[in-house]
């Protein structure tokens, strides 16, 4: 596949995800490098939806360590159970936060972040990374985001 996305912005968000996910799969197909695939995935998500920040944190020992991302500079290390990312890791579950100011223990990497969704990447039942997506708008994520991003995670897990 050419390194170019074909996006129809007249579609609903759910339809846009259905259009985008196969393109991410095609873009990463046959590429064995984890960082290259994670990088193109975050770039595709940001290009498609204009997210404020999108990136991966990788599990390394007892911390999440910043991986490929797009957006403003970010927190480099996050402890298990801390903030939205650490909570997603600890629970091995998606965490959707409509207003980060209302999330107990939220880690403010950027004061411009208003809402967030974090989706774990599971390999052999263990969290190996999390996908973190931030918006500068309140309540910007919904069931469509959660469903589509969770659908993407088995592909991502295959790169680890």
Automatic annotation (TrEMBL):
Recorded protein name is GAF domain-containing protein
Gene3D superfamilies found in the cross-reference section: 3.30.450.40
Which residue numbers delimit the GAF domain? 33-158
**Family note:** Belongs to the free Met sulfoxide reductase family.
Determine the domain of life of the protein's source: Bacteria
Cellular component annotations (GO), alphabetically ordered? cytosol
Which species is the source of this protein?
Hymenobacter luteus
Give GO terms: molecular function aspect only.
L-methionine-(R)-S-oxide reductase activity
InterPro entries tied to this protein: GAF, GAF-like_dom_sf, Phosphatase_reg/MetRdx
